[in-house]
Amino acid sequence: MAPPKDLRRSFKRRPISDQQRRRELSLLRQAHNRNDAQQRARNLASSVISFQPASPESEPELELPSEPEPEPGFESVPSSSLDVRQASRLRGPEVRKWFARQLMLPEWMIDVPDGLSEDWPTGKRCFVVSSNGTTVSRLRNGSILHHFPSALPGGARTKGASGPAQSYCILDCIFHESDQTYYVIDMICWRGYSLYDCTAEFRFFWLNSKLSETGACGPPSFYHKFRFNTVPVYNCDQSGLFSAYTGSVPYVKDGLLFYNKHAHYHTGTTPLVLVWKDEKCSQYVIDTDSKGEVPNQQHVVLELQDDGKLVTSDDPPVVFGCLDADFVKQSELSSGSLLRFSIGNGGLSCVDGRLENADLQYLGKTNRARAFADSYSKIMFQYIARHSPLKIDDLAASVISHDTEENKAPEVEMTG
Amino acid sequence: MALEVTQLLLNAQSIDGTVRKHAEESLKQFQEQNLAGFLLSLAGELANDEKPIESRKLAGLVLKNALDAKEQHRKYELAQRWLSLDTTTKSQIKTFLLKTLSSSVPDARSTASQVIAKVAGIELPLKQWPELIVSLLSNIHQLPANVKQATLETLGYLCEEVSPDVVDQDHVNKILTAVVQGMNASEGNNDVRLAATRALYMALGFAQANFNNDMERDYIMRVVCEATLSPEVKIRQAAFECLVSIASTYYEKLAPYMQDIFNITAKAVREDEESVALQAIEFWSSICDEEIDILEEYGGDFTGDSDVPCFYFTKQALPALVPLLLETLLKQEEDQDLDEGAWNIAMAGGTCLGLVARTVGDDIVPLVMPFIEENISKPDWRQREAATYAFGSILEGPSADKLMTIVNAALTFMLSALTTDPNNHVKDTTAWTLGRIFEFLHGSVIDTPIITQANCQQIITVLLQSMKDAPNVAEKACGALYFLAQGYEDVGPNSPLTPFFQEIVQSLLAATHREDATESRLRTAAYEALNEVVRCSTDETSTMVLQLVPIIMMELHKTLEGEKLSSDEREKQNELQGLLCGCLQVIIQKLGSSEPTKYAFMQYADQMMGLFLRVFGYRNATAHEEAMLAIGALAYAAGPDFAKYMPELYKYLELGLQNFEEYQVCAVTIGVVGDVCRALEDKILPYCDGIMTQLLKDLSSNQLHRSVKPPIFSCFGDIALAIGENFEKYLMYAMPMLQSAAELSAHTSGADDEMTEYTNSLRNGILEAYSGIFQGFKNSPKTQLLIPYAPHILQFLDSIYMEKDMDELVMKTAIGVLGDLADTLGSHVGALIQQSVSSKEFLNECLSSEDHMIKEAAEWAKHAIGRAISV
Predict the structure, then answer these.
(1) Pick from A30, A75, A147: which is nearest to B493 by CB?
(2) Residues contacting B223, CB < 8 A, separation 6+
């Protein structure tokens, strides 16, 4: 009797069955879900341990206004304290909310602080996250823009060679439609190393040196159809400001971005980064409507609160007005709804830097994709742009005068 | 005392059912009433040359079955029963068995050999029957060839039964000497030589020391090589089997013999009978297996850090080996593609060629290309098929750069062959080759795409058309489509398959409806391809995926309307139910992963659940498992809304958890209980008594496959996390179980890799349970209930840390548990934590880990501990 032997399987038969694959994929999903549940439990309210990479020592972030209409059957979990890898496993509205909160949003420049300046391409502001062999870009409202392989670390599936699982990246980008390029305006995480806590100056240095190493800036190929590019950064002295203002770039410029050199990456709206634009460096100085036309009256988006107050997305929010309870009920509005208003002829009136009165006219609810109300500074910039704009000359003049000054934390002040 | 059992044994083989049944019952009764007497009677029957061979053979067989069983628990039980017999009976039985080795009846000798080995398997590890080997070795020097032959056979079986470490080296040396002498060409008796050769095959694992000795190794190798040239075909085959085993067991010792072995194997492949030629090819396949493993261990950098160095035997033999293998490809059998189990020289040669390609990479391409070019258009189908097979075989291994031009040039040819070649085999192999092209040279990792806008339409048209070809060809076309879709897995929002999506799905569904769809596993392949197409689809086609839901549901519904079916029809019906549930499961996972599609498809949830529950009624393990997995995915998508299905589902969860025999069903059910816990959270509470009872029973069962136990512990964690402090009432049952499992799994010393892996999965399950329990109790007034368990848990963490053999997953879970303990119990355990090794060395090691997950869990633990000890 010959000894029993494992016969080699015929080469033409597939070694792995789809059933086995389904089993493994299910186990994988369950392990992920268990991990999620565990992480959520660890970060539930009572643990005052802040687990947020952005500011490890700070108090937990205040919850952002929830989605206009909470989806039925959805548990609302405070996901503010998850890191990006955990967040990448969140589902549905949670994940959109999480990402929406992670971008550093510039305040609008209504006064002149010191800082760095940078060109500001027109396009879709988004987060680009590469991990586990794929790259995903998410818009400001958290929804997915593209899902694609990239040359970023962890950004594409490489057969056989399994790279370290933690090799993920998060970039703050603007997607420029006409040349299908992601312009990287900031780097938050590189190969799993968090740059949240690094200064802007260091982040730009790191960004420029690391991005080129990966080849992600190379011309597009069939699989890597989107390329990455950096945007020029200038020191905010007279020549830097002039180069940024007049310099030619391959993309359509949409204003200048001013960074405080020493600022860490900060989620949400921050006064440490300011955006400024005029007709020369942006097509969109004054907001356009969905048809691309400048409306006769300025439009603003505000959030409705429980008590009928209409507030901005700032923390703490700024109150612009109030709706009466009957109107809220009649229009079937609920707390947290984002509403669009136009500013009537009454305009905005301010006393001692505080908003006294706003002539708001209700237009309707906003598009569901919208995640936030407008920020106070944006509304004010738009208002000023229509009435008495801040000019490049004002900026240039201030650069000279500020050159020698100590670096003070810029504050946004009302000039209206 | 022994009884006459001859007549009973003969009657037990009677063609008359009544007689047979009666005899079987009497034997059983005898066995139950007097085991010692029964076994002794059987041994006596086997040893008695006066008795008919039929009753002697059956006596030996029954005896063997009373000593050993496949199933582990049964095997252990039988061994214990044998050991408990009185010494006199055992020694009488042994005497009978050894006496039988000298019988003139070959079947009696052979049966006795096997029984002796079984007894040895029980007794030698316990240092009993020490005289066995001595007495067998003394037989070798006896004159009659039949005794010699039977003794060698016994030694072979003995080596198969016992592990080398229970036989001392002196005896090993003597056994090997006897065996190798028996194989020698000078042994005139072919039966003896064959028995010796087969015995060596089984004794090779004992020869470690002897292979380290140059002289002894040279001798063994010379004798084996000579035996491959024996005039007796069975001896040649057995000798090649020895060479195959040596190739994997003693790879690093082979260098001096490779030239000779190549010559021997080449001659056998070209000239010998198929049974011998197959083993000669297998030798090279085994060498490739070894070298692939070694080179994989080297990784990208060929520094040679591996335990075993690569000798590049394949690379050196390449110029002669490749032509040898190519020749075999032309020796196809008619209709080999229609027979699932077919295995012949052409198939073995192709398989080996594929392994050679994986071993040497680019170097194989120039050696195979001329053969392909010469044969691919020949009028003889064998030549066209062999050329295509050769091409398909070398697509894995060589670099994409090396293959790209060739593949691009060949693609058009292949597509046309698949449509127009008159021969079924050629089409089968062509479709398979296309599948290999898409598997290895298509996807986001390849820089220059094989499939372009220009040819995509044509490729898909040809594949879909082939799905109407003969079932075996259609099955391969489905396989090709599977890999085609997989290559677009991460293509982004715009998949090139989108324009063809509808057509692909329709063709695949049409294939599943073919009357001959059950032949050549066509239906399975079609559903597998459909699943992959769905998995890799993008948002653009989500509406079409959604439209599939009612279609597949209707198919499943149809299988539930069956009238009286034959057992064959029923089997096919169950298989189809499994496939359909699997397909729905894939669709649920796909649509459930994005919000808009999830809400659209949840409208079908009620009906879907209804169908799955009905599938359970058929009690078919595979279909049951698939339906259960689909339900898990549905629970995940549905969230708390899933509660409404629980009253009906609960019974099946319970049934699943009780299914020890089909342990996959049990394992899958445990996973789904976890899904349901996360979906329902505290709404699972009313069902927890039943579930926990069943899980605790499962844990205590010896019958349940051990792989299911770690997930049960994890499931404790899932339940605790879902129901929080309500877990209180289960603590008194769960905690002692966890504690004793923790003690068992704390140490692995001396375990093999497989055992260490299992221990780690067990540790991970235990730790996940602790984690879930701590987090579940957090902020409850009942946290103090957990304080008594803290010392043991910390001790467990310390001991697995000190054992230094945990894998990364355990490390991550373990350090997380340390944090959970601190987070939930806070200052109550501050001092305890500070005393533990885990809170110092272990935590620091995790904090500086390169693994992001470990580091993250450690950061969390550090914060939690900081808080616990600062309060």
Answers:
(1) A147
(2) B180, B183, B184, B185
- Any B CB within 8 A of A223 CB: yes
pLDDT for the residue A239: 64
For residue B8, give every residue at least 6 positions away whose Cβ sits within 8 Å of its Cβ, in sequence order, or none. B23, B26, B27, B30
Cβ pair B816:A75 closer than 8 A: no
In this structure, the number of other CB atoms found within 10 A of the CB of residue B496 comes to: 18
Does pLDDT of A413 surpass 70? no
Interface residue A225 vs chain B (CB under 8 A): yes
Whether residue B672 contacts residue B631, with contact meaning beta carbons closer than 8 Å, is answered with yes
The answer to whether the CB atoms of A11 and B347 lie below 8 A apart is yes
The pairing of beta strand A309-311 with beta strand A134-139: unpaired
User: Cα(B865)–Cα(B437) distance, rounded to whole angstroms?
Assistant: 55
Q: Chains A, B: CB contacts under 8 A, how many?
A: 184
Q: Three-class SS of residue B816?
A: helix
Looking at residue A306, what is its pLDDT? 82
Strands A227-230 and A181-190: parallel
**CA nearest to A221 within chain B:** B447
* pLDDT tens by residue, B134-187: 999 988 877 789 999 999 999 999 999 999 888 989 999 999 999 999 999 888
Q: How many helices (H) and strands (E) does chain B have?
A: 42, 0
Q: What is the mean pLDDT of chain B?
A: 92
Determine the distance in angstroms separating the CA of A149 from the nearest CA of chain B, rounded to an integer: 6
| The two structure tokens encoding residue B170 | 């002196």
Residues 6+ apart with CB under 8 A from A12: B337, B347, B428, B429, B432, B476
CB A186 within 8 A of CB B325: no
Q: In angstroms, what CA-CA distances link B23 with A73, B670, B771?
A: 67, 45, 59
Report yes or no: B680 and B647 within 8 Å, Cβ to Cβ: no
B593 residue type, one letter:
S
Q: Which of A358-372, A390-404, B409-423, B688-702 has the lowest mean pLDDT?
A: A390-404
Q: What are A268's strand-pairing partners?
A: A104
Preceding peptide of A316 cis, ω within 30°:
yes
Q: Which of A147, A107, A38 is nearest to A270 (CA)?
A: A107
Type of residue numbered A304: L
Q: Which of B160, B444, B585, B863 to mutate to test the interface with A (most CBs of A within 10 A)?
A: B444
In this structure, of A404-408, B490-494, B612-616, the range with the lowest mean pLDDT score is: A404-408
Q: Is A74 on the interface with B (CB under 8 A)?
A: yes
The three-state secondary structure class of B580 is helix
Contact predicate A340/A301, CB 8 Å: yes
Residue with tokens 């370290």: A164
Would the pLDDT of A406 be above 50? no
Residues B116, B2: Cα–Cα separation, whole Å:
19
Pairing type for strands A124-131 and A253-259 reads unpaired
ipTM of the complex: 0.79
Contacts of B284 (CB under 8 A, 6+ apart): B265, B314, B317, B321, B325, B352, B355, B356
Mutation pick from A1, A5, A17, A22 vs chain B, by most beta carbons of B within 10 Å, is A22
**Please, are residues A54 and B614 in contact by the beta-carbon 8 Å criterion?**
no
On whether the CB atoms of residues B345 and B389 are closer than 8 A, the answer is no
SS3 content of chain B, % helix, strand, coil (to 5): 80, 0, 20
Strand order, beta sheet including A116-121: A104-108, A268-276, A253-259, A116-121, A233-234
